[in-house]
């Protein structure tokens, strides 16, 4: 049987389950289940019953379309409870021998041994770079000689309660969590080129509830952040500005929205249904663009501040890559470039085959990225040597080895 992986992207707006075969050059999609989300706000659970029902619906759809029973999945996580920091760890190398995987493992353990409040847990530990006997910026120390190995690691932590609530909701839908993966790491995996990661780039995934950021430099992740502002706030602004329901405002945004006022014809109008039983009213598209531009500008100012706070703003030679459902908003690219000062590229998942039509859309970057990211974490490839939970008895790298089947053929299949 082929090795299949399952991604479960639990978004604020949609739940997307993908069953796929992850190959070197592409991802062959065997089944997909996309359903509207419920019970999530700004990336965290606020109604477990509704969320469980939404996850179940998405998983069942993916099971039906793939013909497999889904038992486990890689699950996305975001929300403003996410925090990240960089930490250094070191280990002595005994005797005259090259560095091996156990040494890296121990150095990572020591980087990880920082004081973390009892109500938080480690989601990922990503090695950024190594130093061997003081020689900095060693990429891959395996086999190299030295007496002291140091690792500089990026550590991502999450609120234990938020993670537990998400895990409960997934489990109640009959799926166990293979691994939690931070949204922007998954999105980066789906849309960034190796050149961009090398040169320095920020991936910005603008969803319904959150804007997820990850900075990649010299091939690995150096900084991550989740900003609790997304497309829902733009829609909210339109409900007030136009005095319409959330659903009408959402439709206005998707069908007539523009983030750049000056690009909109000042004479262009369209009709909407206001609250109550009133007659349809005519709305200037420029009025809509004005509202959207204000919110999008504000969002990119927050993004810019976060990048500055990271200290890496001068190192992003490949600029910004924007994805997520809101990346489809016309004019967003221009406003993003203007406010951030970076060259901007809009991206969606590429190199998809099989039942992939619905996934070739910026809204599914996290969903698709979960597959590759999850599998590479399990194989323990040094770049992604990360862990989603404190592993009993340590052993970051060893414990991740081995890809296992997480699917059972349906019925007599
Ligand atoms: N064509 C479009 N034009 C403008 N906005 C759009 C378009 N399509 C989707 N959106 C917006 O994208 C947002 C949803 O994006 P996405 O599907 O990435 O969110 P999500 O993953 O469910 O949420 P999150 O990751 O924040 O939890 C919504 O605000 C929606 O209005
Ligand atoms: Mg999302």
Topology:
Blueprint: E1 4-10, E2 14-22, E3 27-36, E4 40-41, E5 44-45, H1 48-66, E6 68-70, E7 72-77, E8 83-92, H2 101-112, E9 120-132, E10 135-138, E11 148-159, H3 160-172, E12 176-182, H4 183-191, H5 194-199, E13 201-206, E14 211-217, E15 220-227, H6 231-242, H7 246-256, E16 269-272, E17 281-284, H8 285-310, E18 320-323, H9 332-340, E19 344-346, E20 352-354, H10 365-379, H11 396-399, E21 407-409
Parallel strand pairs: 1-7, 3-20, 7-12, 13-18, 18-19
Antiparallel strand pairs: 1-2, 2-3, 4-5, 6-21, 8-11, 9-10, 9-11, 13-14, 14-15, 16-17
Bound molecules: adenosine-5'-triphosphate and magnesium ion.
Adenosine-5'-triphosphate is lined by residues 11-14, 37, 43, 78, 207-210, 230-232, 235, 250, 253-254, 257, 324-326, 328-329, 363.
Name some characteristics of this structure.
single chain, 413 residues, alpha/beta, Dna Ligase, domain 1, Nucleotidyltransferase, domain 5, six-stranded mixed β-sheet, five-stranded mixed β-sheet, 21 strands, globular, disordered C terminus, binds adenosine-5'-triphosphate, binds magnesium ion
Describe the structure.
- With 413 residues, the protein is an alpha/beta fold.
- Among the domains are: 77 residues, Dna Ligase, domain 1 (2-Layer Sandwich); 154 residues, 2-Layer Sandwich (Nucleotidyltransferase, domain 5), CATH 3.30.420.
- Helix content is 33%, strand content 31%.
- The strands form six sheets. It has a six-stranded mixed β-sheet with strand order 12-7-1-2-3-20, sandwiched between helices. The chain has a five-stranded mixed β-sheet with strand order 15-14-13-18-19, sandwiched between helices. Strands 8-11-9-10 form a four-stranded antiparallel β-sheet.
- α9 links the parallel β18 and β19.
- α4 packs across α10, α6 packs across α7 and α8 runs parallel beside α9.
- The longest helix is centred in the C-terminal third of the chain and has 26 residues.
- The radius of gyration is 22 Å and the shape is globular.
- The structure holds adenosine-5'-triphosphate (ATP) and magnesium ion (MG).
